[in-house]
Amino acid sequence: MSSKTVVLQLICPDQPGLVSELAGWVATNGGNIRHADHHTDAGAELFLSRIEWDLEGFGVSRDSIPIAVNALADRLGGQAHLSFSDELPRVAIFASKQSHCLLDLLWRTRSGELPMQVPLVISNHRELETLCREFGVVFNFVPTKFESKSDSEKMILDLLTKHQIDLIVLAKYMQILSSDFLGKFSTIINIHHSFLPAFKGARPYHQAWDRGVKLIGATAHYVTEDLDNGPIIEQSIAHVSHRDEVDDLIRKGRDIERIALARAVRLHLRSQVMVYRGRTAVFA
Amino acid sequence: MSSKTVVLQLICPDQPGLVSELAGWVATNGGNIRHADHHTDAGAELFLSRIEWDLEGFGVSRDSIPIAVNALADRLGGQAHLSFSDELPRVAIFASKQSHCLLDLLWRTRSGELPMQVPLVISNHRELETLCREFGVVFNFVPTKFESKSDSEKMILDLLTKHQIDLIVLAKYMQILSSDFLGKFSTIINIHHSFLPAFKGARPYHQAWDRGVKLIGATAHYVTEDLDNGPIIEQSIAHVSHRDEVDDLIRKGRDIERIALARAVRLHLRSQVMVYRGRTAVFA
Amino acid sequence: MSSKTVVLQLICPDQPGLVSELAGWVATNGGNIRHADHHTDAGAELFLSRIEWDLEGFGVSRDSIPIAVNALADRLGGQAHLSFSDELPRVAIFASKQSHCLLDLLWRTRSGELPMQVPLVISNHRELETLCREFGVVFNFVPTKFESKSDSEKMILDLLTKHQIDLIVLAKYMQILSSDFLGKFSTIINIHHSFLPAFKGARPYHQAWDRGVKLIGATAHYVTEDLDNGPIIEQSIAHVSHRDEVDDLIRKGRDIERIALARAVRLHLRSQVMVYRGRTAVFA
Amino acid sequence: MSSKTVVLQLICPDQPGLVSELAGWVATNGGNIRHADHHTDAGAELFLSRIEWDLEGFGVSRDSIPIAVNALADRLGGQAHLSFSDELPRVAIFASKQSHCLLDLLWRTRSGELPMQVPLVISNHRELETLCREFGVVFNFVPTKFESKSDSEKMILDLLTKHQIDLIVLAKYMQILSSDFLGKFSTIINIHHSFLPAFKGARPYHQAWDRGVKLIGATAHYVTEDLDNGPIIEQSIAHVSHRDEVDDLIRKGRDIERIALARAVRLHLRSQVMVYRGRTAVFA
Q1: pLDDT tens for residues D196-238?
Q2: Which residues of chain A are within 8 Å of residue D102 when distances are taken between CB atoms?
Q3: Is B228 a catalytic residue?
Q4: Confidence band for B2, pLDDT divided at 50, 70 and 90
Q5: With contact defined as beta carbons under 8 Å apart, do A77 and A13 qualify?
Q6: For residue range D96-148, what is the model confidence (pLDDT) as tens digits?
Q7: Which DSSP string corresponds to D5-60?
Q8: pLDDT confidence of B1, banded at 50, 70, 90?
Q9: N or C, which terminus of chain C has less Cβ within 10 Å?
Q10: Cα–Cα–Cα angle for B275, B278, B280, nearest 5°?
Q11: Would the CB atoms of B282 and A214 count as touching at under 8 Å?
Q12: Which residues pair with B215 in a beta bridge?
């Protein structure tokens, strides 16, 4: 199961014959399908499909696949996205002072759980520099002050371009990216430390404690301009009781934050997530 | 383990020596303690205690226990609550059209899981009359129209008085009790069909679907005037995916609703819940 | 989404082009595919597929579909199974004295959650007769004594034939069906009151308590001759602590038993389960 | 809440007045109780108690507390255990090649989640040496060959003595400690990669995959001579499906292994676990 594969994600208006059309195209060209997942959103009248097949023995050359796939998508009035399992996405991890999510992602990358490269880590603090050095990852300190936020974001965008970044992961990055920034780079996964949409905004664990909840949550989602409102990829929960202080909620929260974030990143990297109408379909 | 016990719940300002004082009082009078649970809320500077001991062999007569306990509470500047395991609370279940929570509570009562009596069921619809008849429970139809809401509530209050009701359980009762009503009867447990505080208000499953959540929840809580904001007793969750329609969320929700509600009612009936400052301590 | 559909389940040796072949056959005949799920077991070199499409507008007549499908399966060297959403399977529920699973299944059937008919309930005790009467279901008392077990099983088989039963659900039926019986009727779902394969055999909650576990489980599985070893469909768990006595484990177990069993039965009824090599693929 | 506390754990034959006696002793000496938890095992006729109080202001000097406590325990015919929150237990972590549990424990120690010191890591392989160096922890390579196992164990015991180790944590240490070793050092926590008692022994994930389970588990337990049969402290589970290969079970297992192990170690370090008759009471 370790040979190379290609994944096609397609969204188009629903119509009869789509599964047959897509699978037929792969089969006609000698492709051996490993996974084929489909979803129809009846209300939205949309068809979503994810097909993964072996690159070896496929009759269309690697360079020609995008052309053929785009032609197919055009004919169906939809949009296609391709990824190849041997091309490791280049990921920039953003963090502030807390280490748990960053460490977790670096360890999972090193151990092979997350098929990605991490050419740079960006932080608005210096606390995590040592950790990055231990993992042999470049650490970039980019301070963010209110009066020079646009300068900081410009510096960050330059770094993203220079390092050809495909995905940003906000691993407890305590800064809000401007809509201007999001207009220039928008493939971003964030971990929010609450069971969204409960406890939006600041200090969710304090809010949760005040409310006396019996479960806390963490939510990994794509970032959109509407803060804390992007498409949800993964949610995880932990039990709490009256014995737990705010600090205990924060401690328990760290475990569910890093697990929800790592799962979401893995799903994204394997092209198992499709976004449509503010929601996700997760083929897992 | 089936002999009779008495449970004392006490809340008072925190001070050294409280565990010793309470346990000492029970021990001095020959009481054999089965369970002793305590909690100190450091921020609120409050001490909460639940002590359960055998009634048999206890040196204070049953009638005198309340007097002694109140004297103790007064001395400590706190409030005490007593319950005896052989006195089954009298519970009125309120429901509208949906049967799952009502059936569940009636079955658990019949099978001995819930130590309570159900002298009456009140509904603003007639759908559940047959179910009540099957379980041999009195069904009271009390229609609730906007223009005569206070008349309906008066009728309900008369029924509660007549049947000496100790607790109301709102088992999917789709009516809001007025603050006037709550001023007259306020020991009420409700099941809210969401993971509070997310999705307050109407049609939470539709809200949850629109938001694209990956987990749904149900929350059992005490009723207060501030709607959906009462002290939480129990929360339960279920996983959902993009394949689930709103109807699937509602179906999955029924399972977590009835389980969260049944657990909360059982905890209350066994005097395992203590309320303070809009929160609960649950000794389970 | 409420119109009629047909579900094809197919297992065959893995080979390229299968998804295309199946989807192509449906599409060529004008079928609108609602769900298409596939799984390849690389080790077993098997391909499993479940395709669900609208019956309305499909170009092959209902009577001819089985013939066409079997021809297709033969050509692929596999086996096919068909089901139509408007044909409610006829289910016999077997139970002994405990009511929780039986009540749950009857309520879910009545409320529309489980697409099935229940022409008969069979029990080796009389305790559940009243419950069945309340739900308007025929109750059959079939005593099982050691010396006349084969007579009892013959009586049961006659009832199954007479009522044209498609599926048996063992809802806490405390009898072991003989291999002779299983040779004559083998579509049977059982709920085992443990997290299989832990605590096989008798009194699993006592075993679990003795072992001091922190989680208990329930397992819904197909019945095979090798007791407690059939293909697992669904498992559910509950937390326990040192405060829980054996009776508490049994009580908590009832909740996970009925939920795991109901889910498994629903998955089976909707043809979402496929069995192969002692395992199941569950397309949910 | 950060000031120093002392924890008393006491097990003795059950008798009336014990809570009062213990709490009274603390109160008489001016101790402010923070937590008091008790459990009575009715079958075993045993009373278990954990009391935590402030060291500041307590009328018995630190050196005299053990003497007083042992006298108390003797009088009650039981056994006492004391711990002080400002004395960090010295923990040796044993691991083989896999890094996830070791890294997790080292990170949690560094971040303050686990109140312990790690003077040494012992491994029968060299793979984890770099990781230990990054965390500034001494790494000891102790090869274990069949023919020289007793020599290896002697070397390990010498290291334990030299470093005054209080607790061993087996963090995926793929060696079995001899009963001779256990006779000399027995405060050991292990993580077993299955939902014990299912899948004892070797390669539990392969066993679980073969059996087709829908949930996998991990069990943290104290080590006893009877392999995989020691008192369970914590269990954790993860959902799996037919899509998961053995490698996926192993990957998902890593997450629940490290979480179950970290929780168990934290509970032990905070003296929240009491062992009796092959079981644990966990006051959390």
Answers
A1: 788 887 888 999 999 999 999 999 999 999 878 899 999 999 9
A2: none
A3: yes
A4: low
A5: yes
A6: 999 999 999 999 999 999 999 999 999 999 999 999 998 999 999 999 887 88
A7: EEEEEEEEE--TTHHHHHHHHHHHTT--EEEEEEEEETTTTEEEEEEEEESTT-SS
A8: very low
A9: N
A10: 35
A11: yes
A12: B239
- Band (pLDDT 50/70/90 cuts) for residue B42 is confident
CA–CA distance, C108 with C116 (Å, rounded to integer): 10
Between CA C88 and CA C112 the distance in angstroms is 11
Judged by CB atoms closer than 8 Å, whether chains meet at B20 and D26 is answered as yes
Residue for token pair 């009715």: D42
Using CA coordinates, name the residue in chain B closest to A200: B198
| Secondary structure (3-state) at C161 | helix
Sign of CA dihedral B165, B169, B174, B178: positive
Q: Report the C-alpha gap between D66 and D8 in whole angstroms.
A: 10
Residue whose tokens read 């509070």? B196
**Nearest by CB: B1 against D19, D35, D42:** D42
The two beta strands, C215-222 and C232-239, are antiparallel
pLDDT tens column, B97-147: 999 999 999 999 999 999 999 999 999 999 999 999 989 999 999 998 878
Percentage of chain C modeled with pLDDT above 90: 86
Q: pLDDT (tens digit, 9 = 90+) per residue, A176-230? A: 999 999 999 999 999 998 887 888 878 889 999 999 999 999 999 999 998 788 9
Is the dihedral angle over the CA atoms A11, A12, A15, A18 positive or is it negative?
A: negative
Question: What residue ranges define each of the domains in chain D, with the CATH number in brackets?
Answer: 5-84 (3.30.70.260), 90-282 (3.40.50.170)
Count contacts between B and D (CB, < 8 Å). 58
B197 contact A CB<8A: yes
Q: Which of A1, A23, A37 sits opposite C20 (nearest CB)?
A: A23
Name chain D contacts of B16, Cβ cutoff 8 Å: 27, 30-33
**DSSP assignment letter at B177:** P
Beta bridge partners of C53: C6, C33
How far is the C-alpha of A264 from the C-alpha of C109, rounded, in Å?
Answer: 37
What lies within 8 Å, CB to CB, of B247 at 6+ separation is none
Strands (DSSP E) contained in A97-199 are 117-123, 139-141, 167-170, 188-192
Whether C1 shows a pLDDT value over 60: the answer reads no
For range C231-259, the mean pLDDT: 96
What's at D72, amino acid-wise? L
Helix C246-269 / helix C100-110 crossing angle, nearest 10 deg: 30
C38: amino acid identity, one letter: H
| Over residues D241-250, mean pLDDT | 95
Q: Does B200 touch chain A (CB under 8 A)?
A: no
Q: State residue A226's pLDDT score.
A: 86
pLDDT on residue C194: 87
How does D202-216 read in b/e, with b if 16+ C-beta sit within 10 Å?
Answer: eebbebbbebbbbbb
Cα–Cα distance between A105 and A87 in angstroms, integer? 19
Q: With an 8 Å Cβ cutoff, is A54 touching chain D?
A: no
Cβ of A33 within 8 Å of Cβ of C26? The answer is: no
Sign of CA dihedral B63, B68, B70, B71: positive
- Model's pTM, two decimal places? 0.95
Residues above pLDDT 90, as percent of chain D: 86
Compute the nearest-CA separation of A151 from chain B (Å): 34
Mean predicted confidence (pLDDT) in D67-71: 96
> C99 and chain B: CB distance < 8 Å anywhere?
yes
Q: Do C107 and B113 touch (CB under 8 A)?
A: no
